[in-house]
Each structure stands twice: as structure tokens, then as C-alpha cells.
Amino acid sequence: MCAGFRFYEVRPIWSQPSIRASNNVHKFERYLRPGKMNIGSVYMPVTFGSTTPILIFKQEDDPELPISFVGNGTLIGSEPQRIIAKRIVLTGHPYKVHKKTATIRYLFFNREDIEYFKPIELKTKKGKIGHIKEPLGTHGYFKAKFDGMIDQMDTICLTLYKRCFPKWSTTQSINSDHHLSKSFFQSAHPQNLSSTSAIMEIDN
Length: 204
Known about the structure:
One of its GO terms (molecular function) is U3 snoRNA binding. This protein is mainly beta and 204 residues long. Helix content is 3%, strand content 51%. The chain has one helix spanning 111-116, and strands at 2-3, 6-9, 13-15, 25-29, 37-45, 53-58, 68-78, 83-98, 101-105, 122-124, 129-136, 141-146, 156-164, 171-174, 180-182, 193-202. A hairpin with a 4-residue loop joins strand 11 (129-136) and strand 12. The radius of gyration is 23 Å and the shape is elongated.
């Protein structure tokens, strides 16, 4: 990554370009979509200036191959409080259905997990909302109640969110007669390091 006149070897994580979310939570992007806007977050020394140009290159596994251009953008600030959340959806299936109550299986596989995730709301693919009432047995079956009758062929979903952080592998590169790469974390003070975000426009 080229930030102004500095070069860094980084492993950014990507999120949706919602710069001003109400609760500062932004959805994690698993991969870059060509032609779309994304925000990349990395660990690097604090860089001042909201108009600092950013260039992203991809380094090939073979050192003999040249680096390829990925995208360009601008720095949007050094904000360690930015929350990037990865969403995971667990799914289960109704085993028995009686009016608004159903026995669910294959969502969990032990009683302890059911007790731990009991406060979390359940949703179905057809729009019904419910909650866990009690576990049944020791193999992950549990009883749940919904706001309406559910179909036997419906799918029960439980959504979980996990905060993600950039990979701690940033190195600063200095171009001279030969390429020199050294870790600046060995000599930098922790207070001078920050999670920096840059808005990127990915090139096709």
C-alpha cells in the first residue's frame, strides 16, 4: 500500500462504505467486488490529512513477478473506535410444530449452547419472529415460540455478530537499490500506532 510517499506491506480488512453509521458499526466484506466502493482498515503509523492519496497493489507469491494494481482511494482518518462486524447465521429446522410452538433441531448440538444463546431472537425465512423457551434433552433440541404459526418446511435462523480487527502484520518498505523491508513495530511506540481506514475504489 502506498500512502502518500510511504510504502507499507499490509493485510487490510474490508467493510461497507457507510462512513457515518449511527452506532459506528459497519458490515464486514469477505472479498472485494470489482467496480464497487469499499473501506479498508489497517494498522499503521498515524497519518494526518484526510486527502492523503492511497494506492493498493497486490504482491504475487513469486518474487520475480511484478506487483499488480488493485485500486486507489483517499485516507478518511485514523479511527481505532471503528467497529467492523462479521455476520454469521446459524440455521435449524422444525422437528414438531404445534400452533405457535415448535421443537427445533440441528441449530445446536448440546444443551449448554442453547442456554448460552437463549436471550437471542430467532427469525424464520418466511418472516416469523420467536425466542427460545427451553432446551429438550442433551442433543441440541429445544422448544421455541413464535409470533405466528410456522410452516414445517420453514428454516429457523439465529444471527450472530463478531467484531473483526485488521491483521497485525504491517511492515514499512523502503525502496533503494535493493528492496528492504523491516518491521516498524519493533521500534515504534504503541501510542503512535492506530487503526487507519481508507476509502477505496476498486479497479476492474
